[in-house]
Structure formats: structure tokens, C-alpha cells
Design a protein that fits this description.
The structure holds three protein chains of three kinds.
Chain A (H helix, E strand, L loop, with lengths): L1 H19 L11 H14 L1 H33 L4 H11 L8 H8 L4 H24 L3 H9 L4 H12 L1 H25 L1 E2 L6 H10 L3 H33 L4
Helix pairs in contact in A: 2-11, 3-6, 3-9, 3-10, 5-6, 6-9, 9-10, 9-11, 10-11
Chain B lengths: L1 H19 L7 E6 L6 H9 L1 H5 L4 E6 L3 H9 L5 E4 L1 H9 L4 E9 L3 E4 L16 E3 L5 H14 L9 E3 L2 H9 L5 E4 L3 H7 L3 E5 H5 L6 E6 H6 L1 H20 L1 H12 L3 H10 L3 E2 L6 H10 L15
Parallel strand pairs in B: 1-2, 1-3, 6-7, 6-8
Antiparallel strand pairs in B: 3-10, 4-10, 4-11, 5-8, 5-9
Chain C lengths: L1 E14 L2 E14 L3 E5 L6 H8 L7 E6 L2 E2 L7 E4 L12 H6 L16 H13 L15 H14 L4 E5 L7 H18 L2 E6 L2 H7 L2 E6 L4 E6 L11 H14 L3
Parallel strand pairs in C: 3-8, 3-9, 6-7, 7-8
Antiparallel strand pairs in C: 1-2, 1-4, 4-5, 9-10
Helix pairs in contact in C: 3-4, 4-5, 6-7
The chains are: A mainly alpha, B alpha/beta, C alpha/beta.
């Protein structure tokens, strides 16, 4: 923590010096103080917090159905080998599509609304989830499956008590990839597709700041964007990942 | 090591805008436009070469950008001298301290809120779950709708929770497919929607209460003071283009139908029979300023000197 | 009384070059409470035989029955213990691994309460296998010997009638191997279970088993030999060594 502080301060200092050099218009390059003030203001009105919660809620709301669907597909491919090549081809075909490219189609099929952003995020996380869960299921050691057979586990018990915990390292890796993809997808989708009055996420927050030329606010939004990405990655994922790698180290 | 690298990257990022920030060079004029019928005089100006004709050796650079925010950012980066846009987005930028002013009007045109035929008698009929598409918050369409709402319901942000930001063609598709119940837009989309049987519930002029300039030309103060001759040449060339539209219908229609990829009859109808007016006068500025100050879109515009050159 | 019975089993692997016959007209009767060891060189099919008898694979023809009923797939009453140290589940503690045959919902559905009688049985098994101090450990914290002890304990908790052991101590160092062999004998005596033990270590088989199923290289078939050495057995005694040499020449006549 202390180690990270120094470079952070150095960046702030450089920023301030650059600003005071007067080389840039404040509309292009506001002072750190102006950005901090604008951030404080947006926090106080609750606008920023609501935007963050909105984006995070969309991600959570997308993760759940994506996980369920990905688990189901992976189980199908694992249990009934004949499905595997089909799902494999489907994912190879659809996975590389940028979610944003689907926006017009999604609107045509399902109409307008926040669900469009949810669908785009689902698209962006479903396939990494599926690919990781499937590879997790495939890598379950044969000896564990033998132990399950030996003890006559039912299909449901085999799934819940063996396949899922056994592929936890891969599932978690999928969650991590999914998070970074979801975070990007939700922000870019919000920047393209927004409501005006209420219920916009962090992407819309930044876009709105752009429309109203609130440059310090824009910088503030981008900083928050970075901080949340960093925090989730480092505080949440990295520590859990380490723990999992340790416990599963024998396999 | 890692930290040093991060600082370096950040630094280079911050320096990037500085590298591209070039001032206007002598004898060169850089103009930004957007897409649509309301920009017709600019197409004529370019196709007929009026600028090149008026000032020998002049270098003209045309840039077409998707929205006003992009034009503002290009101006801030030092890449543009003159841009064309609606008055409200210009005012928002001026209020934030951008050093530019209105140089000329360009067009007046019918704007309006298109709704399914017979669906509503007035704005206050629009239900709470309705969805209305318009280009973006702070756009002229948004301000006009707020003005109409202020007049009719006393609350300018009455429908803000129902608004969805969409580009004109997307908004039209959404209206036609029933995904939205209203679309506040401008020609040719408004005309197309009317032809599809949609009603104009509120027109721009009704909202405003007077005729107003839809698209204005905005010049940077730097260009205005560094290139006074070029500035004048541009304004008179624009005047010539507007006059040309008035006097040479056939050639105008020929040129524009090629550019907009529309048949000549439609272009002629839209351009001459539907209330489009091309003029350099700037109208409705006071009204926009006072309404936008009242509703909080502008904060310190009054303390600045005139927004007109 | 016979507990496991194999009747004229045939089994062959389909290979590219044609069939590879492993068993031809193989029959075997295992008495309840018996300790039978299967020995032979690696690749002779002794592990395949064990997987056939335990129901993990099906014979081409012939019939296997456990307690009179035909074995069509692995039975809970016949618990397999593998050579692989990785047969424990890393997300469960030693105690939860042992409980797994009856309490599968650990980790996935939260802790289900363990019945008091089962609780007592677990304590007893932990005591018997010398794992009492390790009940809260996870597999990654255990040595190979402790892992195999846990696997044995897990199999015991399933309350099997027969234990199938597939070279369970093959990867252990010599001291822990001897320790585990003694433990297995203790468990066998105390629990009075039938044991079918696969190994390629002749002295291990001689030390443990009542009867030996020996893969004789000359005939290419498994044949039963008795082991009349009196218990407790001494690996360094003359008769033990003699018997060992005898068996060695059967397995590898050259």
C-alpha cells in the first residue's frame, strides 16, 4: 500500500506542474484540484455513486444468468459428448463479436431499454465463462470421477459436489476475465446507449460530462473508472486467486 | 520499475494533446460540418468552390464530424477554425469558457416532436412510461422540448426520465418499429416520419414562440483576430452560396441530390416547400440564453461579453 | 463363504493392431474376510482385473457377482483406493473427505449436520488410521502417507464389504510404506473386511496376503497360490525369502 503511494503522489505533482505551465487550456487539461472538487461535488449529490451502482448492478444482473447458462452449456458438453462440437462451433463463431456490434440487432429484436445493455454484457461474459467452465470440467481428474462413481453420486450431486468445486480454479479465472470484459462492455454500451433523465451508469456519466463540456467531471469519471477496475482486480480477485491456487496446488 | 513506467505512460498521454495542438496556419481555413439538409449552403459552397474563387491560393479543409461534442473537442485540440452546430451546444461550450463566438446563422428549419397519429392531443397526455428519442441531452431538440414542457406543464424537465439519447436515423427506426412513442428530430427525418403518417405534436417554433436559427456557424476568437481577411472572405462566400440556392434551383437540386443520395424531386420539395430558410441572420439567441440560464444549463454566460462577433 | 465371484471372464482391449487379450476364461472366488493380493509385472493387466472386479469396467463376457448379485457398475459396498495421491478432494478437509461417501453436500450446499452415530464412526476411523490430529487439514497440507491414510479412512467410512486397493502404497517412500502396510493389516483384522490388493511388489504381497493371484509369465495367465507363512511375518526370515524367490521366478522366469 505504501509502495503504491509514492508513484501516485508523483503523478499528481507532475499533473499540477503541467497544469501550472499554462501550456494547456483548462478545458483540455484541468488542474487536479478542479478534478477533485468536481469529484467531491458529484459524490455529494449522489450522482456518481448512483452511476457506479447502476453499472455494477448491470454487471451483477448479467453475471447471474450468464453463469447459469454457461454452467448448463458446459455440463451439456461434458455429459453428452455429441453436443460438445456444436457448442464449441457456436462459441467460436459468436465469441469474437464485439457486443456493441450487436446493439442494432438487439434493439430490433427486443426493443429499447436497459435490458439492451444487460444483453450486451451477457454476450461479453457468457463465452469466457463457458470456455473456462468447460475446460475446468474437462480437467477434472479421472480418479475423482471414479470416487464419485464408486459412491453412486446422482447426476445433480456429481455436478454440484464434484464438477463445480473441482473446476473452481478455472471457474474463477473465467470470472476474472468476465469481470474485465463486463466492465469494458458496460461502460462502452452506456456511452452509446443512454437515457437522459435517470438510470445511467458510469459510462453515461462520463458521456454526459462530455456533452456538457464538464472536463473536470470527465476526468473524475475516468479516474473512478480506473480505480474501480483496479480495486476489484487487486483486492477481490488477486487475493482469492492466490488462496485457490494454494489449496488446489496438488492437482 | 513498474511505477516509473506508469508515470512515463501517463505523461505521454497528457502530452499527446499538446503535440497535435497546432494553430491555424496562414491562408488556410478548416471548417467542420455535420450531416443533413440544414447544412445545404456548405455543400454548395464547397462544390462551387466559392472560397477558392474569392481568395486565390487559399487552402480549405473540410471535416465532417458526427456530433457537436466532437467538433468542440477538435476545436480545443486546435484542429478547427469554424464549426457549424445548434445554438444550445455552442452556448454550453461558451459558458464553460471556450473561446469562440457565433459568426453567422446558416439555416432555420422545421423541427418537431413526431408521435403516432392521434396518440396524444398535447404534451401533458404523454404517459409516464412513454419513451421519447432525441439526439442527446443539451441538444437543440432537448432544449426545445424542455421549452415546450415549461410552457405547457410548468416543469421543463417533466419528461426527462422518458428520454433516450439516439442518433437521428436510429431514433426514426425506433419510432417506426414502435420501440419509442416519440422522436424529436429535424429534416429529413421529420419529413420522412410525417410521410409515414406520424403527427408533429409540437413544432420547434411553437416551443420557442418565435422563429429561430437552427444551425449557426461558430468561429474561434483566434481565427477571427489572426485572419480577419479570411474571416470576411468566408462570410461573403457563404452569402454567395445562400444566394445561389435561391437563384439556381435546378443546379442546387442536382448537386444536393448527389450528395444526399436522394431523388431530385424529393430534394427540391424538402428544400423549397417545407419551410427551410437559409439566412445569415441569427435569431432566437436571447430566448435560448435566458431559458438555458433559468434551467441551469448556463451559469456564467451573462458575465461574458456578447456571444456574437 | 464366498463374497466376490468371477465366472469365466473374457476381456480384451481393442487396439489398432487388433485385440489385446487381457483375460481369457478367468474365474475366481474370494472368501469373505480374505486378504488376496494380485501380483505381476506392470502391463500384465492386474489393474484391469481390479477395475473389472470392482465394476468400473465391464467384461466382454462372463459374470461378476458381489454377495450373489451381479456387479454392473461400481458398488458402494466395494470401495476402491487408488495409487494417485490426488484421489482426495482438495476443497474438503480430511474429515470432510472422509465423510464424502455419505455427505456429498459439503462446499456445494453448505454444511449439512452430521448424524451423531456417523460422528462417532468418523472419530473412530480417524483414531484407527492415526488421523485424529489432522481432521481439519486440507489435502495440500498432507504428506503422501497421510493422504493415503485419508483415502483408506474415506473408503472405510462408506462401510464396504470389500476393499479394492490398486497399488495404494506404490508412490510412498520405504518407511511410510511399511507403516501403511502395518496399518492396513491392523484395519483388516479389526474391521474383518475382505481385501483385494494389487501390487507389483512381491514382498509386499507376501507380507500382507492370505492368498496370491500371480500372473505367470510362461502361461500368460493369473493363477492362485496360497501363502501359508504364519503371522506376524518377518521379511528377513528364511522361509519368507525362499517363497519370494519362488514367486519371482514364476513372474519373471528369465
Amino acid at each position: 500500500m505504501k509502495k503504491g503511494l509514492l508513484p501516485g503522489l508523483a503523478v499528481l505533482l507532475l499533473w499540477q506542474i503541467l497544469f501550472m505551465s499554462g501550456f494547456f487550456s483548462p478545458l483540455v487539461f484541468p488542474s487536479p484540484l478542479a478534478v477533485a472538487e468536481s469529484l467531491y461535488g458529484d459524490l455529494k449529490t449522489g450522482e456518481l455513486v448512483l452511476s457506479i451502482l447502476f453499472s455494477l448492478a448491470i454487471i451483477l444482473g448479467s453475471f447471474l444468468p450468464s453463469l447459469i447458462l454457461a454452467f448448463f452449456l458446459a455440463w451439456l458438453a461434458f455429459r453428452y459428448r455429441s453436443f460438445d462440437p456444436w457448442i464449441e462451433k457456436l462459441s467460436a463463431l459468436v465469441h469474437p463479436l464485439p457486443g456493441i456490434a450487436l446493439l442494432p440487432l438487439l434493439i430490433l429484436w427486443t426493443g429499447l431499454g436497459t435490458h439492451i445493455i444487460v444483453l450486451i454484457v451477457i454476450h461479453s461474459v457468457l463465452w469466457p465463462f463457458y470456455i473456462n467452465i468447460r475446460s475446468g470440467f474437462r480437467q477434472v481428474p479421472g480418479v475423482w470421477l471414479d470416487v464419485a462413481d464408486n459412491n453412486r453420486l446422482s447426476e445433480g450431486e456429481r455436478f454440484l459436489s464434484l464438477l463445480v468445486p473441482a473446476s473452481f480454479p478455472q471457474i474463477f479465472a473465467g470470472l476474472k476475465i468476465g469481470w474485465s470484459r463486463a466492465w469494458r462492455a458496460v461502460i462502452s454500451a452506456e456511452m452509446i446507449f443512454g437515457t437522459i433523465g435517470s438510470g445511467g451508469g458510469l459510462g453515461w456519466f462520463i458521456y454526459n460530462k462530455r456533452i456538457f463540456m464538464d472536463t473536470p467531471g470527465m476526468y473524475g469519471g475516468v479516474i473512478i473508472l480506473m480505480l474501480i477496475g483496479l480495486a476489484v482486480e487487486n483486492l477481490l480477485f488477486r487475493s482469492v486467486e492466490r488462496r485457490i491456487a494454494y489449496v488446489y496446488s496438488q492437482s | 520499475m513498474k511505477a516509473r513506467f506508469v508515470i512515463l505512460v501517463l505523461l505521454s498521454l497528457f502530452l499527446l494533446p499538446g503535440c497535435t495542438g497546432k494553430g491555424s496556419s496562414e491562408g488556410k481555413i478548416r471548417i467542420a460540418e455535420q450531416y443533413g439538409l440544414a447544412y445545404a449552403p456548405l455543400q454548395i459552397l464547397r462544390e462551387k468552390g466559392f472560397l477558392e474563387e474569392a481568395a486565390e491560393g487559399i487552402e480549405v479543409e473540410w471535416v465532417r464530424l458526427g456530433n457537436t461534442a466532437a467538433i468542440r473537442e477538435a476545436v480545443l485540440a486546435g484542429d478547427l477554425d469554424i464549426g457549424f452546430m445548434g445554438i444550445p451546444p455552442f452556448l454550453i461550450a461558451r459558458d464553460k469558457g471556450m473561446e469562440w463566438k457565433i459568426a453567422t446563422g446558416l439555416s432555420r428549419c422545421p423541427l418537431g416532436l413526431a408521435v403516432p397519429s392521434g396518440a396524444y392531443r398535447s404534451l401533458s397526455d404523454i404517459p409516464a412510461d412513454a419513451r421519447i428519442a432525441l439526439p442527446q441531452p443539451g441538444s437543440i431538440q432537448h432544449i426545445l422540448l424542455s421549452m415546450a414542457l415549461d410552457r405547457e406543464t410548468g416543469n421543463p424537465s417533466h419528461l426527462d426520465n422518458n428520454l433516450i439519447a439516439m442518433k437521428h436515423p436510429d431514433g426514426m427506426n425506433a419510432l417506426l418499429s414502435g420501440a419509442v412513442t416519440g422522436h424529436f428530430t429535424s429534416p429529413p427525418y421529420l419529413f420522412l416520419e410525417e410521410e409515414e403518417g406520424y403527427d408533429v405534436l409540437v413544432s420547434g417554433e411553437e416551443a420557442m414562440g418565435e422563429p429561430f436559427t437552427f444551425i449557426a456557424g461558430v468561429a474561434t476568437e483566434r481565427f477571427h483576430s489572426n485572419e480577419p481577411d479570411l474571416y470576411k472572405v468566408f462570410l461573403s462566400a457563404l452569402e454567395k452560396a445562400i444566394l445561389f440556392i435561391e437563384e439556381n434551383r435546378e443546379e442546387t437540386v442536382n448537386i444536393l441530390s448527389g450528395i444526399y443520395d436522394m431523388d431530385k424531386k424529393t430534394v427540391e420539395d424538402y428544400l423549397y416547400n417545407r419551410g427551410m430558410v437559409f439566412e445569415q441572420d441569427v435569431r432566437g439567441l436571447e430566448n435560448f440564453i435566458s431559458f438555458m440560464e433559468k434551467t441551469g444549463y448556463l451559469k456564467q454566460i451573462g458575465e461574458r461579453e456578447s456571444v456574437l462577433f | 463363504m464366498s463374497i466376490l465371484k468371477a465366472d469365466s471372464l473374457h476381456f480384451a482391449y481393442d487396439l489398432d493392431k487388433g485385440n489385446h487379450k487381457v483375460l481369457e476364461d478367468f474365474s475366481l472366488d474370494i472368501e469373505s474376510g480374505e486378504f488376496l493380493a494380485v501380483i505381476g509385472p506392470s502391463g500384465c493387466g492386474k489393474s484391469t482385473l481390479l477395475r473389472l472386479l470392482s465394476g468400473f469396467i465391464r467384461p466382454g463376457s462372463g459374470k461378476i457377482s458381489l454377495n450373489g448379485s451381479e456387479v454392473l457398475r461400481p458398488e458402494r459396498a466395494g470401495q476402491m483406493i487408488f495409487q494417485d495421491f490426488n484421489q482426495l478432494f482438495p476443497w474438503l478437509t480430511v474429515e470432510q473427505n472422509i465423510l464424502f461417501p455419505r455427505y456429498r453436500s459439503f462446499f456445494s450446499l453448505g454444511k449439512k449436520a452430521v448424524d451423531p452415530p456417523d460422528r462417532m464412526r468418523v472419530d473412530e476411523i480417524l483414531e484407527l488410521t492415526g488421523l485424529t490430529g489432522f481432521r481439519k487439514y486440507r489435502p495440500h497440507q498432507l504428506s503422501g502417507g497421510l493422504k493415503q491414510r485419508t483415502a483408506l479412512a474415506r473408503a472405510l467410512f462408506a462401510d464396504p464389504q470389500i476393499l479394492f486397493l490398486d497399488e495404494p502404497f506404490g508412490s510412498l517412500d520405504a518407511p511410510s510404506r511399511v507403516e501403511l502396510q502395518n496399518l492396513l493389516l491392523r484395519v483388516w483384522k479389526e474391521k474383518k473386511r475382505t481385501v483385494l490388493f494389487v501390487t507389483h511388489d512381491i514382498s509386499e504381497a507376501l507380507f500382507l496376503a492370505d492368498r496370491l493371484l500371480v500372473f505367470e509369465s510362461r502361461s500368460g495367465r493369473f493363477k492362485v497360490h496360497s501363502n501359508s507363512l504364519s503371522r506376524p511375518r518377518d521379511r528377513h526370515s528364511g522361509p519368507f525369502r525362499e517363497r519370494k524367490l519362488e514367486l519371482y521366478s514364476l513372474i519373471d522366469p528369465d
